[in-house]
Amino acid sequence: MKNITKLAVVCMVLGLAACSKPQGAGGINDPYANGMGGAGAGGVGTGVIGAPGSPEYFRSTVGDTIHFMLDQSTLSPDARTTLANQASWLNQNPNYSAVIEGHADEQGTREYNIALGARRANSVQEYLISQGVQAGRLRTVSYGKERPLAICSTEDCYTKNRRAVTVVKPRAGS
């Protein structure tokens, strides 16, 4: 009986040692190790992070944010350039849809800023549609002044918070 107990302990130790063994080729791969994405192409967490078809690339290289002047929802020439790049990316990556978030600075009432954020998001949506992005892939939401990027009461902070952000995500069923 004593030998059976010792054999059981040895088997448990060997079993635990096997569990802690690093995975080699053919083992389970961590999709986020070394900056690599998971299996498949074009989905969130798929492909190489920063690859041209990834949401990370969209955010960092194409640019997901445009800014507006005080109380304006008119697109500046810089904003149009960024949005043209966004439209190009969305047209090249049809497996993604986008939510356009409209934001405002802390000045003004809550109701006014919700309406202003909605106008800003709609301006972006209309521009993207004019560049060939299917309307069914775009949705808008206004956060008004509820989700500030910068929290302080200076013009620099206000400028950062007057924005529209295009958030891409894989389309349902893709």
Provide a descriptive summary of the structure in words:
The chain is of the alpha+beta class. The protein has a domain at 55-170: 60s Ribosomal Protein L30, Chain: A, CATH 3.30.1330.60. It contains five helices and four strands. It has a four-stranded mixed β-sheet. Helix 3 packs across helix 4. The N and C termini lie far apart (59 Å).
Based on Cα principal axes, name the global outline.
globular
Whole-number mean pLDDT:
81
Question: How much of the sequence is in beta strands?
Answer: 5-15%
Helix content: 40-55%
Q: Strands of the largest sheet, in order across it?
A: 1-4-2-3
How much is the radius of gyration in Å? 24 Å
- Please, how many helices? 5
Say which CATH homologous superfamily of the domain at 55-170 is assigned.
Answer: OmpA-like domain
Which second-level CATH architecture of the domain at 55-170 applies? 2-Layer Sandwich
Low-confidence stretches: 11-47
Largest sheet: 4 strands, mixed
